[in-house]
Amino acid sequence: MSISTFNQQLLDYLSLSPTPFHAVETMKHQLCEAGFRVLNEREAWSLEQGGCYLVTRNDSALIAFVMPGNEQMIDQGFRMVGAHTDSPCLKVKPNPELNRDGYFQLGVEVYGGALLNPWFDRDLSLAGRVNYVDDSGELAQGLIDYQDPIAVIPSLAIHLDREANESRSINAQKHLPVILFQSENQQTDFRTLLLDQLKRQGIEAAKVLDYELLFYDTQAPAMIGLNQDFLASARLDNLLSCFVGLKSLLDSDRSRGAILVCNDHEEVGSVSAAGADGPFLQSIIERIAPDVELRNRMLASSMMISADNAHGIHPNYADKHDSNHGPKLNAGPVIKINANQRYATNSETSAVFRFLAEQEEVQVQAFTVRSDMGCGSTIGPMTAAKIGVPTLDVGVPTFAMHSVRELAGRDDSESLYRVLKRFYSDQA
Asked: How many CA atoms lie within 13 A of 390 on its CB side?
């Protein structure tokens, strides 16, 4: 597969996935098309050797796995890849209606550590999950996506804020309510607007009860730059890794035990039923291997790769990096290392990744934060602590992480895909 074909599939996935709910729905569809069978956590499972299965939780987290035989499970364990489906964004409040100066606005909460300035003056749309009562009086839920640009957060003109270019601060409560339309009607009800949207999408609903809705930038993902060196999109952190993990699993030879886990809520600490600091992966592993002795032996033979974007060295802010650890875009995936276990990488797991990369002729970079700066974290350390497997943190170098539009290199995602595909396959 050419890099351009791979990147077009990645762009398509990003376009179809404005929220974690849509991201999981898109992955689920691709897995089912490839022969994976959907399991329900409420039902008893009968797992077959060589079977391919998937499980979702909260509609926003997903685990897919290939089932080995017992002996293979003990001897080889599982090759696991982890990522997360959520990204920093603006989330609609429960009672969001604001009618001010003839404009209908929605109040929002900031989800995760978002860069807020880039959200101004963007063409925004709205998507997510809606829970409702259907026409037969039963509880139901569905996904909505307005798709069109229906909202905006205009900047304040510089004439009214002469210091904006020197010291612009944003008050999330005061400055982020989103404008939807002009209206003198003080009785506009947001749930009624959602009911209309459900019906426009062909969903028969009688009353909207609640929702989890996120604003997103409608500018389409694209290859950019004079030589199209870069991939620009919202939600690269971390849907890029979800796609790479998914594609790697689907294209592997499926000859050994393999797991893909895409958790939710990483950007807010992972403490949830669908997050990496919750029981989702552990509970699935316990059902895969109910026998404690077998399971412990299996985990001792397993390995996890946590895939989450890395900070590429920004040419305008090079002093924010350790000079020996400034990853470049289009120079290969990045092994992420931290002495204080903010990343789970150790020399053993790093060596495995480097070995696999050499076999694929993929260049590898390394990142560690400046010693005088704080370090972010990933699902890697949490997952390693939960299930006790050797773990590596790796990612694609990225600019503008947590912005409404992020930037990655043209070549790096496909390079990571080739290494993860080998990791999943028996040839590894």
From this structure: 16
CA nearest neighbour of 236 among 250, 247, 222, 225: 222
The model's pLDDT over 288-317, given as tens digits with 9 standing for 90+, comes to 999 999 999 999 999 999 999 999 999 999
Task: Please report the pLDDT score of residue 426 as a whole number.
Answer: 67
- Mean pLDDT for 278-286 is 97
Average pLDDT, the chain: 95
For the chain, the straight-line distance linking the first and the last C-alpha, in angstroms and rounded, comes to 20
CB-side neighbour CA atoms (13 Å) of 192: 4
Residue labelled with tokens 């807020």 = 116
Element (H, E) at 100: strand 89-100
- 167 and 272 both lie in a single domain: no
| Pair 81, 93 in one domain | no
The average pLDDT across 116-145 equals 97
| Measured distance CA(65)–CA(328) in Å, rounded | 33
Write the DSSP string, 127-165.
EEEEEEEETTS-EEEEEEE--S--BB-PPPPGGG-TTHH
> What total of structural domains would you count in the chain?
2
CA 143 to chain centre: 17
User: 47 and 113 share a domain?
Assistant: no
The burial of 373, by beta-carbon neighbours within 10 Å (0-12 exposed, 13-18 middle, 19 or more buried), is given as exposed
Q: Any idea which residue has 């017992």 for tokens?
A: 70
CA dihedral 256, 238, 397, 165 (to 10 degrees): 180
In sequence order, the 6+-apart residues with CB closer than 8 A to the CB of 218 are 122, 123, 124, 125, 147, 148, 149
What 3-state DSSP class applies to 171? coil
